[in-house]
Design a protein that fits this description.
Length: about 350
């Protein structure tokens, strides 16, 4: 709703000196907005928005092996973790009160094929990680990405025929993938593929198999963005040819995001997501203004890596800029923020 201001107050502006010899007189101001900014306690008291630990989801990359931690060069401080190390980090996340972890696999190339078959394996990395996390910290939330790009040899989010992504055939596989993850103990299914109709199909599939309690966080407005580069390095999920513009949204479109969100909600989504965040704050605001549902935003890898690189150069103060970014995403309308900064942000927020 637009802010409605009352009738302007009548006030004298006093005397402003024009030369160094003239003495300045105090302005006769009825309203001084700086009063509420003068002290720290006052700023905290009137603060309109506040990011807390409860708002954050921490994305984690899972790889094979044991007791393995592999740095991601394009994402400073981010590592691929073997399943045992993921469970260890989940314990740490629970200690920090981070409510949820999002899992993304780094699948061995030998396990990838044109059909993404490994996505349906109950013993794949994601399923093993879910079980390991739940064994150590049963009460932490686990979010699972539903898409085929980490499992396909061609790197696309769906099945292909003659160079074209097949929508309906892909959706059938995604339903099976979601059920496999739910059986392993996942709490939130997050379809990121952008196939038409997949939210409704997954909701029906989960419900038919007794998983009515599992939430769906739809990547409702996921754009074909240049900000995903470091993530694709971490997950080794870049397309081997072409791009994803035929199924991810065009960056020029905002109204279309409202149609995507509405369809996903009608099909049974519990939470809707906008991805990326920083270049799409206007879209987050549009979604928030039009729908009374939980809204998530993904502070993606490119956004993360730019801050890290600038901080390493000494060009920005990392703590302040990260907290300002997260606050801006929240102020735009997102209650939930997926961010690789999560652990650092929690430490900074507590301090």
């Amino acid at each position: 709703m637009p802010i409605k201001f009352g009738r302007p107050l009548q006030r004298s502006v006093g005397f402003v000196p024009h030369t160094e010899t003239e003495e300045a007189q105090p302005l006769d101001l009825t309203i001084r907005l700086r009063r509420n900014r003068r002290a720290d306690w006052a700023r905290r008291m009137v603060r309109e928005h506040q990011v807390t630990t409860d708002d954050l989801i921490w994305p984690v990359f899972v790889m094979g092996g044991d007791n393995t931690r592999q740095p991601v060069p394009s994402m400073p401080s981010v590592e691929r973790l073997s399943v045992d190390q993921v469970a260890r980090e989940a314990v740490r996340a629970a200690e920090l009160k981070i409510p949820c972890i999002a899992l993304f696999p780094y699948t061995d190339p030998s396990l990838r094929d044109e059909h993404g078959s490994e996505a349906l394996n109950p013993e794949n990395l994601v399923c093993k990680a879910i079980r390991a996390i739940k064994k150590e910290v049963p009460d932490i939330g686990v979010l699972c990405d539903v898409a085929l790009d980490p499992y396909t040899s061609h790197g696309h989010d769906g099945l292909m025929r003659d160079g074209e992504i097949l929508n309906d055939e892909t959706v059938a596989v995604l339903v099976r993938q979601a059920i496999v993850q739910a059986e392993a103990g996942c709490d939130i299914i997050a379809p990121s593929d952008m196939m038409d109709g997949r939210i409704g199909a997954i909701r029906q599939g989960l419900d038919r198999n007794g998983f009515t309690h599992i939430s769906i966080m739809a990547y409702a407005a996921k754009y074909a963005s240049a900000f995903y580069g470091p993530f694709r390095d971490a997950a080794d999920s870049a397309p081997q040819f072409g791009d994803r513009r035929s199924y991810q949204m065009d960056s020029a479109n905002a109204r279309e995001a409202l149609r995507e969100v509405q369809l996903d909600l009608e099909e049974g989504a519990d939470v809707v997501m906008v991805k990326p965040a920083l270049a799409y704050l206007d879209v987050i605001r549009l979604v928030r203004d039009h729908f009374e549902v939980p809204v998530a935003a993904y502070n993606v890898s490119g956004e993360y890596s730019m801050v890290k690189a600038a901080a390493q150069k000494g060009w920005v103060e990392e703590k302040r800029i990260v907290l300002e970014i997260l606050l801006g995403i929240q102020r735009a309308g997102a209650e939930i923020i997926l961010t690789y900064h999560a652990k650092d942000a929690v430490r900074w927020l507590k301090s």
